[in-house]
């Protein structure tokens, strides 16, 4: 069963107050080498394999990735302010 | 009597308050369930505040796919007045009925307070009852009310007079250009972060400054 | 996979009487374990043992407090208003016009220390379900909170998390937060107090009870799916102890009762006692339940809280016909590998259990479907033979066809152990009381400058400063019925829009007073809440409480507890208002050091027309400011002694409940006749703090002249009880003063409202702007 | 300048209301092959290189990773309910 990971981050030009707050808190804790923090979301999605038409690799990475890309564009990310990346989880996926 | 639909999504909270405001303004509130797709006899629509679907993903992101929204989107296209308050505004942005997006408050806290606003446009279906430049006080209460949009969109909102209201005396959430509400070019769709429905009765709100949103739309519909 | 797991069945239990069982690790004493064996006539199964252990824990059984709490019922004043009293999920009070309200406080202290956000959030969720289970719509929340010192590093972790958690959950449910408290004392540093009060409204003929009656009726579990949340949480079990105690299949004793978890990554990983709240699911659960109630589809209902299904099934059965059959494998699980005892004791949030007649099941399920609420029929009410009834009923629970529980539910739910724990006045009590804050002991401010700076110091102190940083994170407006909320003396909620009928609620508690004299301290908490409610113009009707104390095994703590309960029960009788419910939280301590004993008292009052409510803040310029009540040199346990000198000693202010009654009556009459433009009770910080708050709340100053018969310091900072400041329009002054005189109640003219400063003649004048900045800066300076 | 990524997810046995809500929404949108969704946080952290004592590789991956692990344990993750993984961002890091 492929597991895909979708990472959603605010576009670089959009203010990220959460990331900034984390950065300030890290500085207060003495982590003074930190120069920037951005905070985003990570989705781990398990996708069931399906019987696929002959000729394609069953449950192939491409298919799951495409499906995830579709989910991200429709729901997981708001592309007005966010961008996303999709990948098969190395730990479990066909990678 | 003019019938105004108030949509309830799972997780809507201020739906009964919006209905009360419609009633106090002289209209007939009609409850709409998020699965309803028939808006027969409804002359205007309110998407109320709350946390639809918990707002766990992004505010308004899941509600935007409710069956009722397809109908709302097509009604908006036909010029039916639509007011999105708080979560409703967020849903309107997620549905692309209004540009931009609402993001986490810059101070990262939920904030509830009485907020002074300036009405920037009295030309929308929901604000004709206000004098342009009028200052009103209504509650604001949100965790994700910081309006953002790209520079082109902002320039267009400004240039075309599409900003409906701005925060005065302190921006409660870091909203760009102090924007509290915007409208579409046709002026029938308005999104507003603060809550006019909680300022319709001096006993339970900071005053009655919010009533104008509801009387405006009712007067417009009667005239039409 | 499941068939490879060995389940400890009743049959096996009967066949293996000698099997050693881990009762001690589960928190049961040996005699308690023996009693279970006697009740059952055999050893308990693993599931039964877990069930008794959790239900006989202090938290669920009140075994240390029961003998004291009885006084609340025994001494209860006669009240026609009380529809449901102590013992149900929450008390119900008749407020007239066919309306009733229900309210109750609960604590979530320990979970909030471990994980402040989720601990506080799930605390709100739990009390809301209690209120819902009475058949009521939850309409408001109040949150009494206590933390370690404001500037302690851990307070920086705990306080913001707790506040965000209460707001995050309450706001998302659409419940206005209308009051509460934020207090600080070093004794709470390792043990904050997170109490939450919920108020609900219902028609008086629509009360629901936690009863499973009517054989054949179905038992439906609805709401969230069941997961491995907080298993054993209420009996304060470390999960590692729970597991290594022989419940795992791998232990080689053949009695494995928890095999499924082993391969999931170790005991600690599989039984988290921290629970994550899901307010969206709770919101749909509320709306779904209210629709079920409205259509009359519920014959009995119980929320799931501590001890989960073990508690809900045994309590429902015990309070009803007595018989119940449960098919535990029908419970919808979040994690399929859960074992029966995990399912039975899981504390997964956002669940309810309803008793439904067979004919109404389809409609019930259809409404759940409408709200996207998960529902499963997990059991059935059964009849009991006379012999079974005599023994306490019969609850039979099976797991895939095997019986894992067969017990008399009354012995689990209602006939747990009861202890008369030893108590003794602490050895240091006399010394603490002897150390009174006399002028010789603590230096008092004398000059005008000293008084002025003392006022500043107190107005900006942690306990007395503005709590806006906290309360701005709470939605006060949602539901559109909030007539008064913080910083008003009490929150006021409109119940009926057409008539204006409403209720007022306030919570109060003072750990320092209670430390000095627990009997008086509890009464002072009661008196303050009573006074706060009265100040809004409402008539006090009923009481709830949350008793936060240290370990009941410490005789000194037990003495504090016993005295406080006695004081509260006597106080309620004297004030004529009954206790309707509450909560006890023991073991609040860091190491051996207990918190200040902190009974929190909630008082509910009724107001016939909320349009007549009296505001806290001064309004009309020229209104006359009057002080009602008697001021004495009472500074023991005061905010002044604490904030300026770090001192706690002497006796708290005298309690005068007869005077409190007269004062409340005056405040109600003043509101009814429209004589009062403002009223504010006096409590921590005395007159000075009350004037600061009244001026700031109304954004207007006052010209005050202190009467000459007492030291100005005592006038300003003493904390004598049964006092209030009121403002009356000049034209009404005489009439109101006459009302006071007619009741023989002391009234003194202090001055008039007006200007933009708090001006105390011959002493000092402080601009409102300066006052505001001192009063409001403290919390933002600490928390940003 | 190394960029580290810290992924923070709820421990598997902890209720994940966000993930559940997303999963149900995806189902309603017709993504019926999705069997599970977990939602967590992703932090992208830029760390400045420092002059290091002779003998260590400057700004080395190990150092940045260790630093990030420390930050995660102290601040980014609430280890009572969450777990985290740390890695150097392949795109920019020393890998
Ligand atoms: N945690 C809180 N949540 C909501 N309201 C609060 C909280 N803490 C304090 N308040 C409100 O602030 C006001 C002042 O608090 P307090 O000084 O404790 O009042 P009082 O002295 O009348 O008991 C009250 O209205 C109280 O309800
Ligand atoms: Mg008060």
Report on this structure.
The complex is a heterotetramer, with 2 copies of chain A (95 residues), 1 copy of chain B (224 residues) and 1 copy of chain C (784 residues). Helices cover 29% and strands 31% of the residues of chain A. Chain A is built from 2 helices and 3 strands; from the N terminus they run βαβαβ. A 3-stranded antiparallel sheet of chain A has the order 2-1-3. Chain A is elongated, with a radius of gyration of 17 Å. Chain A starts with a strand and ends in a 7-residue tail after the last strand. The relative contact order of chain A is 0.32. The model of chain A has no long low-confidence stretch (mean pLDDT 85). Helix content of chain B is 23%, strand content 26%. In chain B, the strands form 2 sheets. Chain B has a 9-stranded mixed sheet with strand order 2-1-3-4-11-10-9-6-7, sandwiched between helices. In chain B, strands 5-8 form a two-stranded antiparallel ribbon. Chain C is of the alpha+beta class and 784 residues long. In chain C, 36% of the residues lie in helices and 21% in strands. In chain C, the strands form 5 sheets. In chain C, strands 8-10-7-11-9-12-13 form a 7-stranded mixed sheet. In chain C, strands 23-25-22-26-24-27-28 form a 7-stranded mixed sheet. In chain C, strands 1-2-3-6-4-5 form a 6-stranded mixed sheet. In chain C, helix 8 (153-173) runs parallel beside helix 11 and helix 11 packs antiparallel against helix 14 (361-370). Chains in contact: A-B, A-D, B-C, B-D, C-D. Chains A and D meet through strand 1, helix 1, strand 2 and helix 2 of A and strand 1, helix 1, strand 2 and helix 2 of D. Strand 2 of chain A pairs antiparallel with strand 2 (34-47) of chain D.
